[in-house]
Amino acid sequence: MQKRRLGRSDLVVTPLCLGTMTYGQQTGQSEAFAILDRAVGFGIDFIDTAEMYPVPPKRETQGATETIVGDWLAARGRRNQVVLATKVCGRGTNDWFRDDGAPTRLTRAQIFEAVEKSLRRLRTDHIDLYQIHWPDRVVSDWGTMPTRFKPFVPAADETAVEETAAAFAELIAAGKIRHFGLSNDSPYGLMRFIAAAEAGVGPRPVSVQNAYSLVNRTWEGGLAEIALREEIGLLPYSPLAQGYLTGKYRNGALPANSRKALFNRLQRYEKPHADAAIGAYVDLAHRFGADPVTFAVAFAMNQPTVASVIIGPSGEGQLASNLAAAEFTWTEDMQAAADDLHQRFGNPCP
């Protein structure tokens, strides 16, 4: 795999990144170790996790994913061979992340507490890419790139971008993190952090981790131009639309041990017209003689501004079709056909 640079940083990563959000709940430690072994053995050198994981978030399991990843890094002696990314929670109401039971905010104190806990769980002295999982500010919709704007009232206690950015600068100076990124953010949020950095407050973000797939290309509506001009890498998550683009849920199917069967939290991909769009993309992959998984991941890998696509298999058996995207030839005809369906369906799953 030809590596790609993250933004203007010195981080150079593989175009596939291993996501870990199921480890510690849907995926047990032994299976997680098998996935990590095989993915890194294939050549992937980029691992992404978060203090919130595993999902769905629960008091009883919070932090288990980072612990599993940290145990694997220690057991295999791989820490210096991978780029390690994790995330701090944005504005939230859950009271189990912070020692004082406070709701999560992106204040200096909370960021410092979060990073120390992540370092301990990951069994490392530094994090290569530390990301804001979602904004502190009130936003129009989760993911902050809706197809229709929903009015909102900003909260009186929103943490200033400058305070958050300054905290990240302190962590870089202390050697606890190397680089800074955003996630689930909008053009407004990205430009605010870039502006702060240009004013001398905080580091420049090197990446944005947003949902991006055949059924959600909202990134292209405003963020892509910023990313291109400002040299920011996109780290797409859910390239398979949380499994829908595999085709496994077609015609009402509900596979045992699937995320939908276990947790029923996939409403983002069950909106009006989503089923027709998903079916059309699965059929398109078959038309080109491709596995729908490989086709969907390859689509994301071959779009402008994409740095590394986050794949998140919950079992080792799901890896092969994901990894095959690294060797898949994405053609102009495939792009044209995908664009044609996008013109028809738009973004049914923002």
UniProtKB/TrEMBL annotation:
Keyword match Oxidoreductase: yes
InterPro entries: AKR (IPR020471), AKR_Detox_Biosynth (IPR050523), NAD(P)_OxRdtase_dom_sf (IPR036812), NADP_OxRdtase_dom (IPR023210)
Superkingdom assignment: Bacteria
Keyword Oxidoreductase assigned: yes
Keywords, in A-Z order: Oxidoreductase
Limits of the NADP-dependent oxidoreductase domain: 15-340
GO molecular function: oxidoreductase activity
Coiled coil: none
Listed name of the protein: Protein tas
Organism: uncultured Pleomorphomonas sp
Gene that encodes the chain: tas
